[in-house]
Input
Amino acid sequence: MRVLCEFRQRLEVNVVKPKTLSRRRFMKWAASVGVAAAGGMALSNFAETRSKFTAMAQMAGGGQRRWVMVIDLERCNGCQKCTQACVDEHHIPPAWGNPNYNGYQEWIKVVHTSSDPNDAAQFLPMPCFNCQNAPCVKVCPVGATYYNDEGLVVIDNTRCIGCRFCMAACPYDRRYFNWGEPPHTPDEQFINYTPDYPVPHRKGTTEKCNWCSHRVRMGRLPACVEACHKEGMNAIFFGDANEDAITNGQETLVLSETLARRSGYRFREELGTEPSLYYLPPSGK
Amino acid sequence: MKEIQTSPVLLKPLTNYSKAYYAFVGILFGIVGLGAYAYSVQLQDGLAVTAMRNNVLWGLYITNFVFFIGISHVGALMSAILRLSGAEWRKPITRMAEAITACSLAVGATMPIVDLGRPDRILNILFYGRIQSPILWDFISIGTYLTGSLVFLLLPMVPDTALLRDRLGGVSAIRRRLYKVFSFGWTGTAYQHEKLEKAIGVMTVLIIPIAISVHTVVSWIFAMTLRVGWNSSVFGPYFVAGALLSGVASVILAMAFFRHFYRLDSYITTKHFSNLANLMLAMIVVYVYFTLNEYLTPAYKWETSEGQLLSVLFTGDFSILFLSVQILGLIVPAILLSLPRTRNILGYSVASALVVVGMWIKRFLVIIPTLARAQVGEFWATYHPTWVEWSITAASIAGFILLYAVFSRVFPIVSIWETEGITEEPSDFTGPSVTSGGFGFSAERSDALTRQDDGGVDYVGQ
Output
């Protein structure tokens, strides 16, 4: 209001002394500040993205990690032990309605693809695909979902504004939202929140599988891989594409050779999202 | 110096408030209050109180957002185009169109915030904004449009506001102050007139690309994803056309409303209605053309996932809504606008109301079915909005009408200085005009309109 009054007074002054250029100068000043701010913002953003890409390129080329997951569909029997292990590991919040696993969000979801018991490909376990051209990362307005230094897509629930654009953008429905306040357990209080291990959970933010970044950092296999191994199924492999090696906790295979021998494929390859997850189709025996 | 004469019919709504008006505003306030209560419940318990879930992750709020941004479209754009093309008949209706823009934009822009899971973190968009995200594009373009359309509304209003400042008596101190601020020291000198015309000219040119960018960018929120039904290159112009269509319809409704209740028959004539009806008819044709493009191309190919979506729209759960939009929202209004028998104000109003409702449902149909179709595994999620969502939706509509109604009671809804001397019939109010300095108008009637010669407003001789 005061600004407007001053502005008006300035105009009144203008009437008396029409040659005063203060308004024009003010407008010019305001416009240049606006342009500079927008430009600066854009530049810093591009710089940030660029440095991220550079970091990733170095990661790929410099002998660092390039995590991959391989799921052998021939071995999966749809027992959902991986889902349960994930729920236990992350204190996963409820899903607030379908789809759910015992009422929980399914960060790794075992999709029933066929009702025919003779059909070899009946189950499709789907964790996050950790796309290397991830649509969710692209659309986030605040950079709350991003590639961490392990190259894994994680969510910072302390920054997320809950717009759910990432969920709309994900072509695999792999993201969940905390529609209400997630239940909190006493053990949570001793957990230090990081985007790698997003516990405790927060109301109004997006959640998803991040391939157990916290375990991977410590050199452990993700919870689902471990659970599948304990169950004796050994269907989920985890590894590093730069080392060309994957393991399910029991056997260690050469990634490229395995993919070639078993005709490994990626889900909806045509979308161009570059998932880091490969499926080995059942041989149809 | 220019003299302004006006019949008090334009000023009467500013001072004479009827009981019906208070009742109307009271009801609107009640609905807005209900919405505020619903929002407080949502803030308390989170979005869990809505029917949105992990599949249908956007619902009525985003529908309202697209709808109101659409309504906002026409005001500034239509008035800018008419100003540029020098259409003189535009003068009595430009302000009501521009006010629609400002009011619906203000309401529409709050909708995504209502939709946020964490509205407390809204400022993160400023702190951590990524220009790569279409939401930032929206934020910037809607912000620019809101600012631009407010300027575009206020600028041509400066001479009228000065008139109210100098001549409207019997109003509260706040309102006098408001007029004083928004008349920006206008005295009606030739220098000021020249500058004002220049500024309006610049805004007229600027507002057109801004307006088009806004709805294009809104459509890109959807079109930048890989979702079936949104992954479409026609979305930008399709949304712009839809916005223009619903906008013209809402201007016609506003015209009919003001003409009837504010007795503006001499200003808003059947010519205005028939001109805008022709514009609306043209927009319906354009919109039908885009609709054909949007649905026929995937329908011909019937690619698996596209086919699943289209069969739900054409023959499945959403078919009643889909066909209603096409028939009741487009074809019937087109017929009403074409037949000589229904080319009257009632016919235009019915057609406009059908179009506005149809366009809201159309936005719903763009958003919900695409989200309801699970992308992995064959199932369809359901979405039945809760009372919270309906209340907030009702409150957004009521809030828009409230803003608009209050605006029309504080500022003249028809531009006084621009319509000077162009009314069809000299109304019986016209008396000898009393001029004083830059302004004059018939001061014969109305106890409310008293002359005030407080210091500094008499510019005789400047």
Q: What stands out?
A: Residues 22-61 of chain A form the longest helix (40 residues).
